Amino acid sequence: MPNDEQSEDWPAQVQRELRRFAEARDWPRYHTPRNLLLALVGEVGELAELYQWDPPTPPPPDRVAEEVADVLIYALRFADVAGVDVTKAVAEKIARNEHRFPPLNDRTP
Ligand SMILES: [Mg+2]
């Protein structure tokens, strides 16, 4: 797994690890974009379930971490199979949002 010195393209590193994991188990045949997307939605649901009630009972931090990991894993695997360069896509999206939503001190009064 990436450490601080290798973290610049950690999504690609994680995707390579996830690809290796899936290939070692002959799972790529199940890893269609549709299947991975539905699995991602399921994991988002599991994360949401931890915050289901209002006022929420603080969920156990280890359960939150586990579900966040599941969401990220499926999102990264989906992007890999769908041919999305995650690092580039996120950088471009952040840049677009910087333009769309300027900081308060850059706005004309
Ligand atoms: Mg889960």
Automatic annotation (TrEMBL):
Coiled coil: none
Domain NTP pyrophosphohydrolase MazG-like span(s) in chain numbering: 32-102
GO biological process entries: nucleoside triphosphate catabolic process
InterPro entries hit by this protein: DCTPP (IPR025984), MazG-like_dom (IPR004518)
Molecular function, one GO term: nucleoside triphosphate diphosphatase activity
Pfam families associated with the record: MazG (PF03819)
Record PANTHER family: DCTP PYROPHOSPHATASE 1 (PTHR14552:SF21), PTHR14552
Protein name from the UniProt record: Nucleotide pyrophosphohydrolase
Organism: Dactylosporangium siamense
Lineage, opening ranks: Bacteria, Bacillati, Actinomycetota, Actinomycetes, Micromonosporales
